[in-house]
Amino acid sequence: MTTPQDSVCILALDTCTEACSAALYYQGQVFAELADAPREHSQRLLPMVEAVLKQANVGLDKLDAIAYGRGPGSFTGIRICTSMTQGLALGLDLPVIGISTLAAMAQMAIAEHAAEQVLCCIDARMGEVYWGQFVAVDGIATLVGQEVVSAPEQLQLALDMNKPIVGCGTGFDAYPNLFSLGKGITPLAEVKYPDARAMLTLAEVGIKAGLTTSVDELEPVYLRDTVTWKKLPGRE
């Protein structure tokens, strides 16, 4: 997998789906923890952060930025991830960068499975899916169009159907008929959830593009309009 420049130290966190993950890039190495642990994210994430820091033998003071899973995904999971990011970044005055959970899955498919076109779908419950379409541009997952929440039958492909398309995410488990879109989509069972490891590469690209923000500007993405983000008590 493509990794950030050696001089950059990035911590990545994600709890937006059933999986919980943390990854650290430091001095040319990636240290990572991942668990499929629904309903245990609030208990698992901080120990994972401590584990990757311990593996790298580094403290939080060495971090240059924190990348966080911004969604879409579980409302509770997104809140946990953004709250943890806010808590860590606030005391250290670190910049943060939100990474799409759909883009993280696409990046994993591109980097580890040589995918060129990826349709990522997360089961959104209520008969809907969160979905996004991505192509590999210089090895980086690049969004085609917008990320959307809709009924499965409303999903419209904008990818090149004359070239291979892989599908990943829990949306395909919930709605197997998604594989029959267009000329058919090849399932990639190895990429079911976002992974903080893939977020590191996307974070570096975003950092170079100046997309980091202060922790006060941290912005989760729910796609549905029924949830609003509330900062931790004491924050304006």
UniProtKB/TrEMBL annotation:
The record's section on InterPro entries has: ATPase_NBD, Gcp-like_dom, T6A_TsaB
Q: Where is the Gcp-like domain?
A: 37-229
Family under the similarity heading: Belongs to the KAE1 / TsaD family. TsaB subfamily.
**In its UniProt entry, what is this protein called?**
tRNA threonylcarbamoyladenosine biosynthesis protein TsaB
